[in-house]
Write a structure and sequence with these properties.
The protein has about 800 residues and is an alpha+beta fold. It contains 14 helices and 32 strands. The chain is globular.
């Protein structure tokens, strides 16, 4: 054992030294250059250095953007050959004339960002180097002459200068009604006094005004009918003076002010035109629907076709044309937001197209607008039906290993059979039926590999394409998008071998919608005012013996009912300024017990009473080849009325998508050692409070056509706790003063096989800090590098291999 431990220690040191030496090599040593012209200077690297009184984030953004404005003959793209090695192919020969063009491109870009007084200084650094002779080259070609490389690095130093400041904003519209609208909506302007000028901001303001007019009936008004004028003239220069010296001082002062504190006046003007339709407002006349169109149909041909069956609304202004009668008229009208005699509104037209397309009954929605007379428009909707019914089968797998001799080594396999009907009762109602089968295979108490758990579940969901309100019609819902009503029922049966059987039945009634904000990123809401869950737990012989040593489990593993409310909201944040960055926020709230207490005074323990709140944030930033991803999760379930939280409402960590150095449900609670020292093979851990953070650096390894092999370096940090103290389970409760000791830390790497349609992932995690370790404050030790021995003699592995499908987050 001593020799084995030392050998493992030496292997770890050797691997560490190899990685360190590889990473610490200079970039020049780790970059190979091919197809260069010998004895001629070639572009090896370019760099932009910005100086100026701007924020750190702004400097970083401008530096990144300016790096894309080098002349093509000065670009030296490096390709990642392997993890730490790069290659530079066909580097261009250096020519100083290309620097001048690069300055022009960069200056034009800075002008668009409001920097008109930037100074550019370039410097060129050349140095000679030689290809590194590998050992194989020395043996096979000992006398081979290595061609000389003259690597050239070009630096562009930019003194950014002052950004143009907007001094005033005005609107000059030829039509009085349009001028009134511009002044009325001035508070929404992207331009304001004191803000920085950029061409993009001016462009956004012009788009805002055009969109505003097209929302108010101006059907023919376009971006070509409006422009922005910048007034840079200093009014003091207009004063006539016979004193040449005084005039010179004014010119000098004006030049100084332009450079030190440049200010512009911006006027938004309407172009003069003889076309009266540009200032004409249009109203909606009739609306036509073609819900059975084919993807090969030509809309213009459908409009003139005569042999249609028709449904005409009571006001004679809405007409549905069809041949087979697959759809009813009602869902079409309910999801069209433009009404007869209302002003033409392009936003509402787009909202109608998107909403009809999101229902699920139609795979494609197209429109035509036809001028009926000088002030009215007919709308035509052409809808291509989606496949009405389909059946899918999904296979999922997960493999997590911890202690190979215990009950935390599982191979999970599950499959989902899903049947979907997208047009129930001809009303675009969706029906989703799902059957789920799953099992976990692992080692039992006799160390035999066999099924350890079994799951079967059946669910049925109906999705109505509107908000069904039982009592009254709320006007506020008219401002919501993608409105749906959800009716769900489900039942499941779980058998955890030798320990318990769990029967579950759930039913809920809820609503789903989203709301578009100014940035056009929707907040997606799901609200279930009535959520009912019934649980029946049968404890088996293995669990009964477990209770003798762990009586606190009795309160968590018990029958009960959940009657309450749930609310979830999520949003994806994307930015035009940073298109490679994606942020997602998900918040979930659940409550049980309050709703039923309104109608009943019962205090039965059969009704679970608790409040559950959890939040998750994910971050992803993509680079040209690599990416970084991060996730933060926190969840808490607080029991009410002196109850304890049932285990199926608690949290657990570990496995292929969580703390990957621990097996499934094998981390925690806190720094408790009760589960690690228990003689029972049932070591599942559940807690009332969870806190976790994950970080990954993802990079490619090899690509062949659509098949990709990539890898990642990751770290996982977190744990689970109970909220209340238990004298039989020390250090399992959450305590801020003990947070540093309780937090678990894992590092690892993995390999991912991306087949385009699905991804297979194998991750290896290592426990850098295990709260259950009874030495070194939980941190790893080289003396026990691969495994730790608990106080009862049980060995616990410090490394774990996880198998999963898809990315972990």
């Amino acid at each position: 054992m001593y020799l084995s431990n030392n050998r493992n220690f030496l292997n770890a040191i050797l691997i560490t030294l190899i990685i360190f030496s590889t990473v610490s090599c200079s970039e020049e040593r780790r970059t190979s250059v091919t197809n260069f012209q010998p004895n001629k200077p070639f572009v090896y690297k370019t760099a932009v250095i910005i100086n100026g009184n701007i924020s750190k984030d702004e400097k970083k953004r401008l530096t990144f953007d300016l790096d894309n404005y080098w002349d093509d003959s000065l670009k030296a793209p490096k390709l990642q050959k392997a993890v730490f090695w790069y290659t530079l192919k066909n580097p261009p020969v250096f020519d100083s004339a290309n620097i001048l063009r690069s300055k022009k491109y960069m200056n034009s870009y800075l002008n668009s960002q409001g920097f008109y007084y930037a100074d550019f200084k370039d410097s060129v650094l050349s140095f000679d180097t030689f290809h590194h002779r590998s050992l194989i080259t020395k043996i096979i070609h000992p006398n081979k002459i290595i061609p000389q490389q003259i690597r050239t690095t070009v630096f562009m130093k930019v003194d950014i200068g002052k950004n143009i400041t907007i001094d005033s904003v005005g609107f000059v519209m030829l039509d009085s009604n349009m001028q009134r609208l511009a002044i009325q909506e001035e508070k929404k302007s992207f331009l304001s006094k004191g803000s920085h000028y950029t061409k993009q901001t001016v462009s956004d303001e012009l788009d805002r005004l055009v969109n505003m007019y097209r929302q108010n009936g101006y059907f023919h008004f376009t971006r070509d009918d409006i422009y922005a004028e910048a007034d840079t003239l200093n009014n003091n220069l207009l004063q006539l003076s016979v004193d040449a010296f005084a005039q010179g001082r004014l010119l000098e002062a004006a030049a100084h002010n332009r450079k030190m504190d440049p200010k512009w006046n911006i006027l938004i003007k309407q172009k003069a035109t003889k076309d009266s339709s540009k200032t004409q407002t249009y109203h909606i006349a009739k609306t036509y629907y073609y819900p059975e169109a084919k993807i090969t149909d030509i809309p213009d041909s459908l409009m003139v076709k005569k042999d249609w069956k028709e449904y005409v609304s009571k006001n004679q202004q809405n007409i549905m044309r069809y041949t087979e009668g697959k759809f009813s008229y009602r869902p079409l009208r309910e999801h069209t937001f433009l009404r007869h005699d209302s002003l033409y509104n392009e936003d509402l037209l787009i909202q109608s197209i998107n909403t009809l397309g999101q229902i699920g009954a139609w795979q494609q929605v197209d429109t035509r607008t036809v001028i009926r007379n000088k002030d009215s428009i007919d709308l035509y909707f052409f809808l291509v039906p989606a496949l009405k019914q389909n059946f899918t089968v999904d296979l999922e797998g997960s493999r997590n290993t911890g202690d190979l001799a215990g009950g935390d080594n599982f191979l999970g396999i599950s499959t989902n059979f899903t049947y979907r009907n997208r047009n129930v009762w001809k009303n675009a109602i969706q029906s989703v039926t799902n059957l789920r089968l799953g099992t976990e295979l692992g080692f039992d108490s006799s160390n035999k590999f066999s099924p350890q758990s079994f799951l079967i579940g059946l669910s049925q969901t109906y999705i109505f394409p509107k908000l069904i309100q039982p009592f009254t019609q709320w006007r506020a819902i008219n401002k919501l998008n993608n409105k749906k009503t959800l009716l769900s029922i489900a039942g499941s049966y779980t058998d955890r071998k030798d320990y318990y059987r769990l029967r579950q039945f759930t039913g809920s009634w809820g609503y789903e919608w989203n709301k578009i904000n100014k940035s056009k990123n929707p907040w997606n809401w799901t609200f279930r005012p009535l959520n009912v869950e019934l649980y029946k737990v049968d404890t088996l012989s293995g669990f009964l013996s477990l209770l003798a040593a762990n009586p606190f489990l009795q309160q968590s593993f018990r029958d009960g009912k959940v009657v309450g409310t749930t609310l979830s909201v999520n949003k994806i944040f994307n930015s035009k300024l940073h298109p490679t960055i994606s942020n997602k926020v998900n918040v979930y709230f659940e409550e049980s017990g309050t709703v039923i207490s309104i109608f009943s005074n019962t205090n039965s323990d059969q009704i679970f009473r608790y409040v559950k709140l959890q939040a998750e944030y994910t971050f992803n930033k993509k680079f040209r080849k690599t990416a970084i991803a991060a996730r933060i999760f926190s969840g808490i379930t607080v029991p009410k009325a002196g109850q304890t939280v049932p285990f199926y409402k608690q949290y657990f960590l570990g496995g292929p998508n969580s703390m990957r150095a621990w097996g499934l449900r094998q981390l925690g609670l806190g720094s408790s050692i009760l589960s690690d020292t228990s003689k029972s093979t049932f070591t599942d851990r559940y807690g009332d409070f969870a806190l976790e953070g994950n970080f990954e650096y993802r990079f490619p390894i090899w690509t062949f056509s659509s098949f990709k092999v990539s890898s990642a370096l990751f770290t996982d940090i977190g744990n689970v706790w109970n909220l209340s103290k238990d004298p039989n389970n020390a250090n399992a409760d959450f305590n801020v003063t003990r947070l540093g000791k309780d937090i678990a830390v894992a590092v690892g790497t993995g390999i991912r096989f991306d087949f385009n349609y699905f991804l297979i992932r194998i991750d290896a995690g290592y426990k850098v800090k295990d709260p259950a370790r009874q030495y070194n404050n939980g941190w790893m030790s080289f003396n026990n590098f691969w495994s730790d021995t608990r106080s009862n003699g049980k060995q616990v592995n410090n490394a774990s291999l996880q198998f999963g499908i898809g990315l972990p987050f």
